[in-house]
Structures are given as structure tokens and as C-alpha cells.
């Protein structure tokens, strides 16, 4: 049985997530009071497999009932009921924009500023986020992209309990660390092609940058050590029940060094038989500002 608890910030996409899970064949319940979660789980586990995929949305709309969440999670663990937590997140700026566009009030600040409600909600949900098996940042996602990501993590292709989806993500530190990254590696210690006029306009997807970045002894040693670390961690994450691993590789702007190394790590993990994808979050941010080649 796959038992998924969907939670996260209001406005981050929980409604879209639960609709996507429902389309994948999950039995879905929205806004279930945490006090009822244990009884509901017991009933589902007693169906002898007739209900084998369940998703519950539990969030601060439950008011004072939300405080019972951790007690219910403790009970599920004691009874050996396996569960996963999916946490939906987004930046404050994006959440405020979504609330203004929908003209909705934040549930924790019905008479006050939206941002105050968001800050209060983040504090309440910190512990739940820490316990989450999967964190999805929807700040830059369209509904279809969220739907596709939900499908990759919770769809039929992810039914094997030993499967782990690895996403290697390049980013620029000046644009912020990805909130859904499980591991973050800083490659700003490597020489920066940005300061070489004939290389500046290229990206890590170009051979010129790849050859430059990977040509240093320090780069080769770093990649070797990182590959060894990931190969050690991956089976242990699988054993712990993790379904998705986001590995962030960051440089200053997210265009040169991090992209080249992300591509290399992606190829190595793929050749080792892992289910892996790659994404270059900030590769075009400097292009927008300076008109570089994409």
C-alpha cells in the first residue's frame, strides 16, 4: 500500500497535487482532520489490498485539529503503517501574487496582510517540512509541470518500492538555493569561465565551457568524490524509504560551472543504472540581463 500525506503552504498547489494523485488512481481525501487519520489508515489497511493507494490532504485549514498531526504520525509509526509526506512549497513572492490574483484571504490572516499569514504558516509547518519524504517547490511551475512531477514520483512507473528518482539541478547562488534540494554542493571554488572574454557568453551546455571546466584537476577530483558519495547515499536513502532525491549543484550565476558539472554527474548516474533527470534552473537568467547566447 502507498499512503501519501499531502501538506504544505496554502497556495503552493495542494489542490492541483491531490487532483493529479486522484487521476493516478489514488483514493483521495481533502482536509481530513489529523485526529481521524489513524482510524482512516486502519480502515484502509484492513481492506486486504482493495484500496492500495491513498492520498490525504492535511493542512492548517484544520485549525486546532492540526496540532494532533504529530501524535497521529507517531501512532502510524508504532503500528508499522508506512506513510510518505509530500510537502508543497513556494516563495513568499509567488504565494502573495497567487493570493492577490485569486482575491482569496489567507486562512491565518483573514483580516491582516497576506505576508503575515504566510510567515506564520511557515513557522507552524517547519517540523512537517523537515519530516517530508518529498518537497516540491512550485514557484516556477505551471500546473502541467506539477502534474508531470507528481506522476514521476507517485505514478505507475514509481510503484517499485526500491525505486528512487534522482534530479540533478544546477542553480546560481545569487538567485537563491533551491528550497526542494536535499543535497547542495558549491562549485564556486573552481575557475570561472565568466571572466574569460571568449568563453563568457557560452553556457555549460557548450563544448567550450565543458572542456574548460572539466580540464582542471580539482574538477575531476571533485566529480569523482561526489560520485562516490552519491553511490554510497543512494542505497541508504532507498532503504530509508525516500522516493525522490534532489541534488543541487551551484555556482555564482548558474550558467557555466554548475551546468557543466550537473551534466557530467547526470551522465555518470545514468550510466550506473539510476533513474535520473537533470534541470538547469538559472541557465538563462544572465542571458536575460546581458544578452548572452542561450
From TrEMBL:
<dbReference type="InterPro" id="IPR053930">
    <property type="entry name" value="RapZ-like_N"/>
</dbReference>
<keyword id="KW-0342">GTP-binding</keyword>
<dbReference type="InterPro" id="IPR027417">
    <property type="entry name" value="P-loop_NTPase"/>
</dbReference>
<keyword id="KW-0067">ATP-binding</keyword>
<protein>
    <submittedName>
        <fullName>RNase adapter RapZ</fullName>
    </submittedName>
</protein>
<dbReference type="GO" id="GO:0005524">
    <property type="term" value="F:ATP binding"/>
</dbReference>
<feature type="binding site">
    <location>
        <begin position="59"/>
        <end position="62"/>
    </location>
    <ligand>
        <name>GTP</name>
    </ligand>
</feature>
<dbReference type="GO" id="GO:0005525">
    <property type="term" value="F:GTP binding"/>
</dbReference>
<dbReference type="InterPro" id="IPR005337">
    <property type="entry name" value="RapZ-like"/>
</dbReference>
<feature type="domain" description="RapZ C-terminal">
    <location>
        <begin position="165"/>
        <end position="283"/>
    </location>
</feature>
<dbReference type="Pfam" id="PF03668">
    <property type="entry name" value="RapZ-like_N"/>
</dbReference>
<keyword id="KW-0547">Nucleotide-binding</keyword>
<feature type="domain" description="RapZ-like N-terminal">
    <location>
        <begin position="1"/>
        <end position="155"/>
    </location>
</feature>
<dbReference type="Pfam" id="PF22740">
    <property type="entry name" value="PapZ_C"/>
</dbReference>
<feature type="binding site">
    <location>
        <begin position="8"/>
        <end position="15"/>
    </location>
    <ligand>
        <name>ATP</name>
    </ligand>
</feature>
<dbReference type="InterPro" id="IPR053931">
    <property type="entry name" value="RapZ_C"/>
</dbReference>
Amino acid at each position: 500500500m502507498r499512503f501519501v500525506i499531502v501538506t504544505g503552504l496554502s497556495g503552493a498547489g495542494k489542490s492541483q497535487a491531490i487532483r493529479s494523485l486522484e487521476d493516478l488512481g489514488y483514493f483521495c481525501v481533502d482536509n481530513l482532520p489529523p485526529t481521524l487519520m489513524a482510524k482512516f489508515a486502519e480502515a484502509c489497511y484492513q481492506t486486504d489490498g482493495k484500496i492500495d493507494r491513498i492520498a490525504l490532504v492535511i493542512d492548517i485549514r484544520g485549525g486546532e485539529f492540526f496540532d494532533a498531526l504529530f501524535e497521529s504520525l507517531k501512532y502510524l509509526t508504532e503500528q508499522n503503517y508506512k506513510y510518505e509526506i509530500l510537502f508543497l512549497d513556494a516563495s513568499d513572492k509567488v504565494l502573495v501574487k497567487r493570493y492577490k490574483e485569486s482575491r482569496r484571504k489567507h486562512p491565518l490572516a483573514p483580516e491582516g496582510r497576506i505576508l503575515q499569514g504566510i510567515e506564520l504558516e511557515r513557522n507552524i509547518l517547519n517540523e512537517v517540512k523537515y519530516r517530508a519524504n518529498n518537497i516540491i517547490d512550485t514557484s516556477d511551475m505551471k500546473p502541467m509541470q506539477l502534474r508531470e512531477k507528481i506522476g514521476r514520483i507517485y505514478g505507475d512507473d514509481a510503484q517499485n518500492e526500491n525505486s528512487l528518482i534522482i534530479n540533478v539541478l544546477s542553480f546560481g547562488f545569487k538567485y537563491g538555493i533551491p528550497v526542494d534540494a536535499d543535497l547542495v554542493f558549491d562549485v564556486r571554488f573552481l575557475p570561472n569561465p565568466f571572466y574569460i572574454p571568449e568563453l563568457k557568453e557560452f553556457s555549460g551546455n557548450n563544448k567550450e565551457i565543458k572542456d574548460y571546466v572539466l580540464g582542471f584537476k580539482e574538477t575531476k577530483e571533485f566529480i569523482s568524490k561526489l560520485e562516490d558519495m552519491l553511490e554510497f547515499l543512494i542505497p541508504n536513502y532507498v532503504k530509508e524509504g525516500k522516493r525522490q532525491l534532489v541534488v543541487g549543484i551551484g555556482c555564482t550565476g548558474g550558467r557555466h560551472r554548475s551546468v557543466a558539472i550537473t551534466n557530467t554527474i547526470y551522465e555518470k548516474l545514468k550510466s550506473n543504472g539510476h533513474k535520473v533527470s537533470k534541470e538547469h534552473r538559472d541557465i538563462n537568467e544572465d542571458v536575460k540581463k546581458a544578452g548572452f547566447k542561450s
